[in-house]
Amino acid sequence: DFPVLIEITDSSLAEKAQPDGDDFVFTDANNVKLDHQIEYYNSTTGHLIAWVKVPYLSPTIDTVLYMYYGNPNCGNQQNPTGVWDTNYKVVLHLNEEKSTLYDSTINGNNGTPYGSLVQGATGYIGNCVEFNGGYIQLPRIFTTEMQFTFSAWIYPRSGARYFISQYQSPYKGAFLQVYADNRIELYVNNIIVAKSITINRWYYVVATFDGTTAKLYVNDDPPAFASALNPIWVSPNMYIGDRYDHVRKFYGFIDEVRVSNISRSAAWILTEYNNQLNPAAFYSIGEEETFGESATSGNQSTIATLTTYGYSAVEYACQRKIFYANGRFWVFYYDGASSAGYSTSTDGFSWTPFTPFTSRACGAGWRFAVTFDGTYLHYVFSTGKNGDPLYYRCGIPNADGTITWLDVEQNMTIGESNTGHLWPSIAIDSEGRPWVAYARKNATENSRYAYVTTSITSNGTWITAPGFPHQLSPTNYTGINVMIVPLTNQKMLVIVSCAGWQIESYPWDGSSWSEKQTTISAITGDGIIECGLSAVNQGDDVHLVFVKDSSHDLIYTKYTYTSNSWGPEIIVQAGVNSKTSPVLSIDVATNKLYCFWAGSPAANCIYYKVYNGSTWDFVKGSNPWIIESNLAGYYQYDGLSGFYQSYNNLLGLAYTTRADNVYQLKFAFLTL
């Protein structure tokens, strides 16, 4: 957990990053997001000074970091206090140009300037403070600590004395001072350790005490040391540039003051010196890469700002709510208040206002699903209330963003006073007839059963086919999701999931049902529960991804219709967040599969992998694909909805975010 100084001047940053640098993100080689703090950024020159918390540095093996920028829509990605481990009591960059000097740690030990000081002077690292007889007062830092580390960059002038002190005469506490213009001294109680210097130049000075030995480091020289007793911390304050009675003032420049409650190691101190002395020699910078199949180059946008329950705008992934038709992206969503509607965009950036597609009140995104068959869009809608039927409607999505409906909203099921319909999904068979799968809840029986129904018509009306609605299983599921997938020649596959159970499949051969089959593994029972899955067809075969129970591995498996069986399971990504709901899409031009998920390896990031028929792999720009400040959903990482298949060589994804209790629906797309 070492804070590495990154200092770069690059015109690409000025051209592509946000003016305040909010979009800068640092990750390790595994694309785990790292905490960072920006000390300085000039958006005109592209000069960046940042501190990045790196989990591990080796003296012999290079540590690879990645820096991302160019996201115009994201919020501030910094976590300044996370950079500094809990042993830091004070970290002062001293870069403020006036007033309070802020502590970067969680402790809030800010400094107050007094007397003749120049803030915003040119320091060794960014800005610093020039001391001309003034001082900075901090709160009392130490009380009973038996170890400490002081460090600072100093540029002493003639007459300079104390530069870090928590000391009170006689001989109580500790301090660092310049003495007689020719040496630096560390006092611990009444023990002195000294190193020779020449004034009017920069030095990196570190003092440590481990409970028995006081050490003084200057630059990269071996330390001077002496035995000492534990300091007695009686002074009520710590001072930078002076001491408690203000008669030992420092003259010159002080930069990067740090105080820890442990004795930092010699290796730590030498690494600090080498990193800060010349950052460009401490690391090398690779060539800038422009993402290929990614949204970071600008293919992200905000569709709408949502109200109170906006986190469920496009839930769940298994239901589908977005597609591309007639030159437009179409996103259907819940507004977070009481309406279900849609917005469209011709370019994926500018979106039309929210337009309701039903006059019925809507209380969550899971109450409807949408599909596009290449000509018509179809939706199924549930009010979520006992006694109401399911509703269906079909229309043409026009090039101007309007919808020409073929008929009025149709009642699909009979409304029964004690019965409701949950998590409906919709698919269209090869003859253009709509099929709807859903969980039928009976309040009197306290039951939830898996059901499917279909119509004999394909003209926007609904006439229920004989033998439907059909109950797929006699099992009363405690939690249930029912998803339907179209095959060829009027065949369909219904997929039923229940938290902690193996996933079930029920094939329809065009006239009758075949034997139920199950996956090898169970779907997770302790996260997103039964909704954490997604499926697409390739001819009569079905590709499925889901989050596995217990291990939370993101699993891929394939259903083969000819053998009515599920194949081996392949791990797409090991140990994902249990609250993620993956999205599976297929590129119809290549039959490559794209699996999207959120929250792992790094929080608040969206990733995807591509399946080439044998392995699942990250591609350039997919690890991660999208970095946000705070993704949102009912379970946080389930607020995703993606294309079922590619349209016009495009794949799209809608997702929700939250900032200060304000929800936003966002969109990103890939050009394949």
Helix/strand layout:
Blueprint: E1 2-9, H1 11-16, E2 25-28, E3 33-34, E4 36-42, E5 47-54, E6 65-68, H2 80-83, E7 88-92, E8 112-114, E9 117-122, E10 127-132, E11 135-138, E12 148-156, E13 162-168, E14 172-179, E15 183-188, E16 191-196, E17 203-209, E18 213-218, E19 224-227, E20 238-240, E21 251-260, H3 266-277, H4 279-282, E22 300-306, E23 322-325, E24 328-334, E25 340-345, E26 355-356, E27 368-372, E28 377-381, E29 391-397, E30 403-405, E31 410-411, E32 419-428, E33 434-442, E34 447-454, E35 470-471, E36 481-486, E37 492-497, E38 502-508, E39 517-522, E40 533-538, E41 541-547, E42 554-560, E43 565-566, E44 570-573, E45 583-586, E46 593-598, E47 605-611, E48 616-617, E49 626-627, E50 631-632, E51 640-642, E52 650-659, E53 662-671
Antiparallel strand pairs: 1-5, 2-3, 2-6, 4-5, 7-21, 8-11, 9-10, 10-21, 11-20, 12-17, 12-21, 13-14, 14-15, 15-16, 17-18, 18-19, 22-53, 23-24, 24-25, 25-26, 27-28, 28-29, 29-30, 29-31, 32-33, 33-34, 34-35, 36-37, 37-38, 38-39, 40-41, 41-42, 42-43, 42-44, 45-46, 46-47, 47-48, 47-49, 50-52, 51-52, ...
Describe this structure in words.
The protein is mainly beta. The chain has 3 domains: 1-83, no CATH class; 85-288, Jelly Rolls; 300-671, Fucose-specific lectin (Neuraminidase), CATH 2.120.10. The strands form 12 sheets. Strands 7, 9, 10, 12, 17, 18, 19 and 21 form an 8-stranded antiparallel sheet that branches. Strands 22, 50, 51, 52 and 53 form a 5-stranded antiparallel sheet that branches. A hairpin with a 4-residue loop joins strand 27 and strand 28. The longest helix has 12 residues, at 266-277. The radius of gyration is 32 Å and the shape is elongated. Mean pLDDT is 93; it is low at 291-298.
